[in-house]
Amino acid sequence: MEPAVRLAGVSKSFREHRAVEDLDLEIPVGSVYGFIGPNGSGKTTTLRLILRMILPDSGRVEVLGQAAGGPSGASIAYLPEERGLYRKIPVRRQLIYFGLMKGLRRREAARAADAWLERFELTKWAREKTETLSKGMTQKVQFAASVMAKPRLLILDEPFSGLDPVNMDLLRSIVFELRREGTTVIFSTHDMHMAEQMCDRVLMIYRGRKVLDGTVAAIREEYGADMVRIDLEAGNRWNPGGAPGVSAVRERSGGYEFRFQGDASPLLRTALDHGGLTRFERIHPTLHDIFVRIARPEPEEIATLASGEAAS
Amino acid sequence: MWRKITTVALEEYRRVVVTKSFLIGLLIPIVIYGGMAVAMVWMSDKADLEERRVAVVDRTGVIAGALAEAAQRRNSGSRVYRDGRQVAPKYFIEAVEAREGDAEELLLELADRVRAEEVFAVLEIGPAYVEREGRRGEDYLRYFSERPTEVDFPGWLRREAENAAERLRFASAGLDEREVRAMMSHPSMERKRLPELGEDGQVRYRDDLTELAFFVPLGVVLLMFFSIQMATPILLNSVIEEKMYRISEVLLSNLTPFQLFAGKLLGGMLVGVTFSLAYLLSLGLSLRYFDAAGYAQPGLYIGFIVFLLLGLLAFGAMFGGVSAACQDLKDAQNFAGAVVIVLVAPMILAVVMIQVPDSGAAVGLSLIPPFSPMMMTMRLAIPPAPPLWQLAAAVAANLAFGWLCVWVASRVFRIGILSTGKTPGFRELLRWMWRDG
After folding, report:
1. Gap between the Cα atoms of B84 and B76, Å rounded
2. For the CA atoms of chain B, what is the radius of gyration?
3. What is the DSSP letter of B134?
């Protein structure tokens, strides 16, 4: 089956800045694909290339089986982070306008707008200007505007920011509902926990290059169980920082998580000697840990990265 | 393609026109000018009746008496009383003895009396004022007051003093004043429009209303200027809002930058035409009401709309391109200042050239964009209309210029609308024009 999105050897520069470099990517139809990466890493440029807002300097971009041409109207929908709505236009009129932009007829657009407003319990706000809505309500209107034409490819940029847990669950359920109906979802986020929960596969771009691409489980597996989690009784002031092989110590409620390299037995003995140890577990790094390792590498990783770049 | 362009255009149009601020903007000039007319009628009923008393230092010894007689005649005449009611202030002459040797001291004393509001003004008449070839420095007529805006009273004093001096000169020369004045009198020239043969076979002669003949071209030039100036910055605000709130990214996932740009430009042009139509309609109805419809022939209305559209196309494109390149409203306004200068210059030149519409400069500028729309409309409003070839050449030149502006602006727009960070300089803008995407 043809992937929903295929990028082959895609590069894009803005003057001297290389925003995306030699990027290969295939996003299967009906998947939820997470884009992660620090600010300025090339995520937005990649999204814009997929949206065909900009053209690559080299390489090939295929979206929904088409290699060239302008925007795809109803086929592709994009939800930018937080903004994306006119402040002075009433909610329903705004939804109809975006529906028309996606190629719907006026009557279809009006019907879809009403249906989404009802689903999001925003019907009574239909005639109000967007600027009068709360952040959460605005986010829902924006979400409705992007999905009202039933897109085949939905691109979401931090879609859950500003939402309370109830609305977050509502939007999440709609994303999965769309996926069940065959929509491919690209999901750009900084929330690693959300990415782990929602995405079938994750792509991480760093300095314009792809550094991770796969399922969350496979990525975590690839990094090995090089993390240790310890729980300590209340009042125990022992800190594993400074112990041999320990790095990237992160304090958490009731204990610590840290990266550990080497034989764990001496460390376990030290912990036991301090007393009050209730848990000592070797674990796989979370997506968050992996992200931080790549985006803010330890000195030895910088050296490895530098030697790798020199070799290439 | 066109469906999306028209959808954007209609939404842009609706966002501007169906608002209280647009309707208020449309009505404010009418309310202001209408209010001024009402106020003038009202004020005319509330005449200034404060008496004007002038202290006259008459060094000829013969003018002050003549002024006093003239004031008396005026005060009891129809100039002051109409239908038994006083409608204008009365004038009084107070002759002050011109003492020898203390002229300045006397004037200072009288100045204090003016300040104390005992008299309204002081008139000083030089000793040689009546002489036909007065001695230099002694034939003066000086008016001192604290009210520099007063026009009627000093004007009346000057006329009456001159009349009195002329009478004395005629008498000393042995001439009959009435006879001389009769010999000097002329009927005033009547200004008429070209005679027309009416449907009843009678030749019609109509008065040429010079004020109207001047007002119509001035009015249409100003209307075009205000329509462009009002409609095109709307594009600027709209583009900046879409950029700042990332609405452009949502839109550009559904339509091309050119479609978005064209829709916005079209919407802005429709706004300008709507604004103009409201005023053109009131101009047409007003001229018809005053039986002066001939001062704005149908060709003027058609020409106005055509050249307005061409002007809006070029200036709208400039504003659209500029705003897409900028990162915030402040930057955009700074850039737009340069475009406004390009807009103001043709307006000033068109107004200046109303009196010479067929001069080489006026004809030349009416063919060269961006001067052409306003200059040609001005010429259309002044008969005889410009030759057809000039109209055709102006339309062609403006179409070409409009196309160029749209091309340049849309090239800048497609890059600028998604750009972030620093507002680009001129070099960078040139680079955008040739960049692929």
Report:
1. 11
2. 32
3. P
CA–CA distances in Å: residue A3 to residues A170, A184, A213, B86: 28, 10, 15, 96
Residue B328 distance to chain A (closest CA, Å): 16
Q: What is the separation, in whole angstroms, between the first and last Cα of chain B? A: 19
- Interatomic CA distance for residues A241 and A251, integer angstroms: 10
In this prediction, residues B367-388 reach a mean pLDDT of: 91
Nearest to B85 by CA among B54, B51, B49: B49
CATH 1.20.1070 fits domain A223-311: no
**ipTM of model:** 0.74
Write the pLDDT tens digit of every residue in A265-285. 888 898 888 888 899 998 888
B248: containing domain:
209-434
What's the N-to-C CA distance of chain A in angstroms? Answer: 34
Q: Say whether both B273 and B155 belong to one domain.
A: no
| Tens digit of each residue's pLDDT (9 = 90 or more) over B205-246 | 877 767 778 888 888 999 999 889 888 878 888 888 888 888
pLDDT in tens, A3-56: 999 999 999 988 778 889 999 999 999 999 999 888 888 888 898 889 888 888
Residues B347 and B385 in one domain: yes
A49-99 per-position pLDDT tens digit: 898 888 888 999 999 888 766 555 568 888 887 678 998 899 999 999 999
| Candidate from B4, B15, B437 with C-beta closest to A101 | B4
Domain spans of chain A, in order of start: 5-220, 223-311
Residues in B touching A59 (Cβ below 8 Å): none
Nearest to B161 by CA among B94, B52, B68, B75: B68
CATH topology of domain A5-220: Rossmann fold (3.40.50)
CB contact under 8 A, A78 and B11: no
3-state secondary structure of B194: coil
Q: A53 vs B251: CB contact, 8 Å cut-off?
A: no
B435 inside 8 A of chain A by CB: no
What ranges in chain A are assigned the alpha helix state H?
43-50, 91-101, 106-119, 135-147, 165-180, 192-198, 216-223, 265-274, 287-295, 299-311
**DSSP-derived pairing of the beta strands A227-232 and A32-36:** unpaired
Pairing status of strand B196-197 against strand B203-204: antiparallel
